[in-house]
Design brief:
319 residues; 34% helix; binds pyridoxal-5'-phosphate; alpha/beta
């Protein structure tokens, strides 16, 4: 893959299988939607979505740091209405019963809030096109992907290595583009060029293909079930253990990032030591939340959750 031309049949076959599998897994019609593998991360999509589709006014639901960053970029291109926000409680919940009466160029949401550990269970009902940043929960559950007009996801959580960003876009959305967009930022050009306007990130795409084959083989329904079991394991322990409390509202808890804090009076250093002895790493919470965050993406086996839960129990016994 690293030695052959990205225009060679061998690589084009890889790219085409990956594009087609992604649409198939999402149950999206190939004639209605296109799949792209772009560069620049999900952060590039913050501005690319707005550059292409924000003509006058777009509606954003602000559920955390990533939504806030998306809003900041969008404001460079037009008006942004924050139609709902959970910033009043440090983003520990998902706003409910959002009334979207006006028509917007599009509505933008972040389906899973990686840092705060909240996740949309149901999505806003709207007549405006719905754009979703699905970077941290893509293909983790069975949902109706066709309710979205554009889905983007940085590869690095559930898809493959960093370096590619997957975009699933409804072709009819292109009719909304009113301004001249530079070629590299134009969805239309990337679609017209079959996701090879310039050299695509060939190695991440190859790894994504291997992973998509696995996802198809396992089935989104089974993956969903496994993720539910994993999330229940950790949340049940957070709720049971007197040393810890969950960060986010119970109904909005993320199945990908379980955020929790240590209750006052307990010894954080001891817990850190137990975790390290049990080979657990990377569970410190983001600095804006503190505490702990167990990221339990598709690839994490149930056994790892058991080790974490046992470590929490061991800690409680030593108090
Ligand atoms: N959106 C979400 C929900 C994320 O979790 C992240 C990164 O963790 C990003 C956007 C930013 O992605 P990238 O680093 O690929 O630009």
């Amino acid at each position: 893959i690293l030695e052959i031309s990205h225009r060679s049949k061998d690589f084009v076959d890889v790219l085409e299988e990956a594009r087609s599998l992604a649409l198939e897994i999402a149950s999206l019609d190939k004639n209605e939607y296109s799949c792209l593998f772009l560069q620049g991360g999900a952060s590039m999509q913050f501005l690319m979505t707005a550059y292409n589709f924000l003509n006058e006014n777009a509606g954003y639901i602000n559920t955390g740091s990533w939504s806030t960053k998306a809003i900041k970029e969008a404001k460079l291109f037009g008006n942004v209405t924050e139609i709902a926000s959970s910033s009043d409680k440090n983003f520990n919940y998902i706003p409910k019963e959002i009334n979207i009466n006006d028509t917007y160029d599009y509505i933008h949401i972040t389906s899973n809030n990686t840092i705060f550990g909240t996740q949309f269970n149901t999505f806003p009902n709207t007549n405006s096109p719905l754009i979703v940043d699905m970077s941290s929960d893509i293909f983790s559950r069975e949902i109706d992907y066709s309710q979205f007009d554009l889905i983007y996801a940085g590869a690095q959580k559930n898809l493959g290595p960093a370096g590619a960003t997957m975009v699933l876009i409804k072709n009819s959305l292109l009719e909304k583009v009113k301004r001249d967009v530079p070629s590299m930022l134009s969805y239309k050009i990337h679609i017209d060029k079959d996701s090879s306007f310039n050299t695509p990130p060939v190695f991440p795409i190859y790894c994504i293909l291997l992973n998509l084959r696995l996802i198809k083989q396992e089935g989104l329904d089974n993956i969903s079930e496994k993720n539910k079991i994993k999330a229940n394991l950790i949340y049940d322990e957070i709720d049971r253990n007197k040393c810890f409390s969950g960060f986010s509202e119970v109904s909005d808890r993320s199945q990908m990032n379980a955020t929790f804090n240590m209750n006052e009076g307990f010894d954080m250093e001891l817990f850190n030591k137990i975790c390290s002895n049990n080979n657990i790493s990377g569970i410190n919470g983001h600095r804006s939340v503190g505490g702990y965050r167990a990221s339990i993406y598709n690839a994490l086996p149930i056994e790892s959750l058991n080790v974490l839960v046992d470590s929490m129990k061991e800690f409680e016994l030593n108090q």
